[in-house]
Request: fold
Amino acid sequence: MKVYIETYGCQMNEYDSRVMASILTNSGHGMTQDLGTADVVMVNTCSVRDRAEARVLGRLRHLRGLMQKEAVLGIAGCVAQRLGERLLREVPGLSFVVGTEQYWRLPDIIESASAGRIAVAVDAGTGESYDDRPRADEASLCEFVSVMRGCNNYCSYCIVPYVRGRERSRPTSSIVDEVANLVTLGASEVTLIGQNVNSFSDEGRGFADLLGAVAGVEGLRRIRFATSHPKDLSSEVIDAVGSIDKVCEHIHLPVQSGSTEVLEAMNRSYTREEYVTLAQRIREGVPGVALTTDIIVGFPGETDAQFRETVSLMKQIRFDSAFMFHYSVREGTRAAEFTDDVPKDVKIARLQTIIGLQQQVTSEVNAALVGSSAEVLVEEPSQKNKELLFGRSRTGKVVVFPGDAGLAGHIVNVKIASASAWTLHGVNPVLS
Ligand code: SAH
Ligand code: SF4
Ligand code: F3S
Reply:
């Protein structure tokens, strides 16, 4: 059967869609990008904010009308895990629901669904991490590799621990094998992903050891990782980022708020001061590092003064960039029991304020790079202008520059000639 998968949410979901594709192709199915001719249409979903979830449900209802009448429609991922059977009532014509720990069962599920038997597989707690799934048979230049799954942190606003289960790490050997296989197939960069990568643990060896092991893969040029929780980012990891050549100088370190009281209500287990000290240690240990973050405004009880502490923290740290959200109540989380008392318009105004501030800071940080040189892994001609090549610097910034399309896949040094909040413009690429 031909299977079409549409993916929403974080990098883990992108990765899981590939896991599903390899499980399905190994059992004789084929993948397709063409919705109109697919026999099975699946949506891999995200539940992190109310809006993400509502959008996905809308999309599912819409897809039913676009696909072949006899094709089956299914839902996978975090919304599937969260809502399970309830989805059958929400989405008319839905044939199967498969949760985050049940992707192994997809071949059977698809068979049932195609025979007209609705299938729901959302059991959790199996500790599944898909270590033994079939190898990939193709790879992009930049790939994701999951190193751990789940989360035990229970930040009070967050649904992830409920839909992704307890923290568990993959064995180092399985990760290294997967990276080596991807490199053989053409990957040059891997991003090691997990809800909480720095709590990776394999028989007493931690994330810094893992970076060392992955760096040993011959032919691999670059290593990135995400996401780091401030409580787990050890000095060993900072040293590893500073000293292992292949590890890129970029750390995504969600702060969430600049107010210690709000952080406490969020159950983040660090104070503003501890975060600031950690950021300083990272900048000392990894010269030129880019620090990026996630921020939530309008958490229950957030006062104007507490919000201003977030603003002042952003001015103090000067993040290279940030993902910013207003608080969204998630049923079943601890914060759902707090009164969601910041009015919607105040949430939106606060969000606008920090988005404006971050845009200004990012422009300034990028402008300061004009005249310097950047090492870029060249991905492909830019979407907007085919004369320009597109890639990312070691610090994760988008760089475009004029150059020969033959440079795609190579690492070059370019001189930064101008910059905006979104893009660095380079000139004179030289192969490194
Ligand atoms: N540690 C995770 C974070 C996943 S969620 C990881 O693997 O990346 C990504 C971001 O979404 C969080 O850092 C937080 O800023 C935001 N977020 C999570 N729950 C939210 C909620 N209920 N409302 C608004 N933003 C939320
Ligand atoms: Fe959610 Fe917090 Fe876990 Fe990140 S660390 S996934 S924000 S509970
Ligand atoms: Fe969303 Fe699930 Fe990732 S809730 S952010 S897709 S872990």
